[in-house]
Automatic annotation (TrEMBL):
UniProt-recorded Gene Ontology molecular function terms: electron transfer activity; FMN binding; oxidoreductase activity
InterPro entries: Flavodoxin/NO_synth (IPR008254), Flavodoxin_CS (IPR001226), Flavoprotein-like_sf (IPR029039), FMN_Rdtase-like_dom (IPR005025)
The protein's required cofactors: [4Fe-4S] cluster
Residues of the Flavodoxin-like domain: 3-163
Membership in a protein family: Belongs to the SsuE family. Isf subfamily.
Source organism of the structure: Methanoregula boonei (strain DSM 21154 / JCM 14090 / 6A8)
Upper taxonomic lineage: Archaea, Methanobacteriati, Methanobacteriota, Stenosarchaea group, Methanomicrobia
Name assigned to this protein: Transcriptional regulator, ArsR family
UniProt superkingdom: Archaea
Pfam family, one: FMN_red
Amino acid sequence: MRICIIYHSETGNTRHVAQHIASVIPDSRLVEVTDRAQHMALTRFLAQCKDARGENKTEIEPSHLNVREYDLLVFGSPVWAFKPTPAIHSIIDVLENCEKKRAVAFVTCGGRPGGSREVFKKWIEARGMNFAGFTSVNEKDIEDAAANAELITLVKSAVPKLD
Ligand SMILES: Cc1cc2nc3c(=O)[nH]c(=O)nc-3n(C[C@H](O)[C@H](O)[C@H](O)COP(=O)(O)O)c2cc1C
């Protein structure tokens, strides 16, 4: 396997896009990261925004991931408070053997990805990976052929040997 698609998704949009990538990119593996933080329902939205804004980390499952066998890593996250989520931050932080790998990132959002590209780039480069691109998909467009085509093109272009 050459491509590992690592994503976090609370309500399914990012999972949907990640599964689409996996369905059209040969030789890819999906890894879903879950956030084990327990927030009270009433204050969950505010707590999630606060944690994302602070670029906090959280307890996740899986708690570590060895990516030695992959040529390309694809990270997917929802946008929370204009940033990727604590869960995707956490998995990037605990990746094993990610140094010098190429990595691309995508977010799904309600329409305002804010600083997500820059934050992803910072986290990816902090772990010694090479940031090779970013795209944002509006949650309204997750079924849209053009929006998906842009993302697939990005992933394929990051691995030049794929057709
Ligand atoms: C806590 C929280 C904060 C959010 N903040 C933003 C935001 O800043 N900008 C935006 O465009 N969408 C925002 N959204 C919408 C989500 O990014 C969007 O619905 C995304 O597709 C959800 O992905 P998921 O279904 O994979 O969890 C937010 C949603 C939540 C729950």
